[in-house]
Structures are given as structure tokens and as C-alpha cells.
Design brief:
By secondary structure, the chain is α/β, with parallel strands linked by helices. It is built from eight helices and seven strands. The structure holds nicotinamide-adenine-dinucleotide.
Amino acid sequence: MKEMDKKVIIITGAAMGLGLAAAQEFAARGAKQVLVDYNKEALEKAADEIRAEFPDVEIVTHVADVSKEEDVKAYIELAESTFGRIDGLYNNAGIEGRQAPLAEYDLDVFRKVVDINLMGVYFGMRHVIPVMQKQKYGRIVNVASVGGIRGVVNQTPYVATKHAVSGMTKNAAIEYGKDGILTNAIAPGAILTPMVAEAFKQVNPDNPEAAEREYSQRNPTRALGQPKDVAKLVAFLIGEENGYVNGQTIAIDGGESNLY
Ligand code: NAD
């Protein structure tokens, strides 16, 4: 018996970065999973790696764009029809967009960030909550960011959508706590994933390693976070151990958001 072997968990953006690290952590704890991503090739590769490492764990993949409501409905239906229930949704898929000052921001990119980071998270909650209400049990973890509790220079739509994720988390928590559903958000700082590696390339295209070194020196711990650190927090929030944390946005950033 493993801690999560009765659990069914959906992860969006599971092909790499924070989503993949969570899939590995949940697999180590025995959870059945539906892994969702719009990058089919990377998703299948990630799932194959997890199956090879944890052959007893049931893993289903589904290619979907979380900004499309029909795609979201389909991954929820797949999880229910395959496993009969959904214990947790890790609403993780998100993009940063390009970096530019507020008044110069490209509108198409702005709308895309809204569609994925805000509407994608909303659609996930909209369609999983009725399933969890029937069960009288559920755990939702939405991915905000330190950009969901602070401003970040040149990232207006990212900051706007991540604040929205934190706001929607509070609403889901107060509306559905009575149904046994606990909803929380996490606010990672700089965690070393492909998304953050890309951001360092934008800051210093000639020497992204220098940008990474400089950035990590600002952190109270003098280091960037690792995806595994985040996965362990998510495993707590989405698992049975979380009995009463609801509606919170929990920073996981080495303390950086406290700096003045
Ligand atoms: P990443 O780019 O490394 O991975 C994101 C994954 O999501 C990719 O596999 C991508 O294909 C998928 N994805 C993106 N848009 C999608 C869509 N519309 N439909 C389906 N899949 C989609 O990013 P990451 O760093 O792992 O970030 C994961 C989440 O964590 C994001 O919401 C991000 O904003 C948030 N976050 C990350 C950091 C960090 O430091 N890495 C910090 C704060 C918040």
C-alpha cells in the first residue's frame, strides 16, 4: 500500500517542468494519473519515463489545450470514465508570454496569456467541481506565482492572470468547502524549469547562465528552487494529509517575496 494508491489525479502541463516533477512525485506515492499537455511528443516521452520507473502505476495521457473548454471537458470525462472518480486536479499549465513594458505589450500575446493562464484554470475548476461535489471530496491546486502576489517588471498579463488565479482560488474555496472540496494555489518563485530557462534567455540572450547566476544571488537562499521542492508541497495540498488548508496562495520562493 502506498500513500496515494487510491487517488486519481489530473495534472495539466504535465510534459515538463513543474507538472512533470509532480507526476513523478505522485507516481512514487502510487497515484493513478491523467497527464494532460498540448505538446504531444513531450507528453508521451514524459509518460513513458514515468511508466518505466513506476510500472505498477496507472498513467493515462491526453493531448489538450487548456484554453479550449471542449478540450478541458474531454480530459475531465476521460479521467472519470477511466478511473471512476477524480480526487485531485493540479491546474498547472501556464505560459509567461513575452517580456515588454505594459503600454507596449503585444495584444495578441496578452490575450493568449489570459486564455491559457486564466481561462484554462477556470475551465478546469468549472468542469471538475461538479464531479468532486458528487463525491463530496476533492482537492484542487491552482498554480499562481510570486507574480500573483507581487508585480514583475515587463510581465503585465502574466501578473494579471496569476493574481486572477489567486482570486478564483479564494472563490472556489469559499463556495465549495461545504462539499468537501479544498482549493488552494501555490506561488512559486524562480524554479529551474524550461520556462524559467527561457526567461533567462530573454533577459540576457548572449549569456543566460550569467542572468541565472545574478538572479539566484537575490534570493535569501542564494539559489533557485527545484521542481521537486514544489512537487512535495503540491503532494501535501492535493493529498489526504491536507484536511483544513483552503483558499490560500502559498509562496514557495526561498523567502524572496518578503524582500524589500
Ligand atoms: P514549462 O514551460 O516548463 O512547462 C509548462 C507545460 O505546460 C509545458 O509542458 C507546456 O507544453 C504546457 N502547456 C502550456 N500551455 C498549455 C496549454 N494551453 N494547454 C496544455 N498544456 C500547456 O513551465 P513551468 O515552469 O513548469 O510552469 C508551470 C506552471 O508554473 C505555469 O503555470 C507557470 O506560470 C507556473 N510558475 C512557474 C514558475 C517557475 O519558476 N518555473 C514560477 C511561478 C509560476
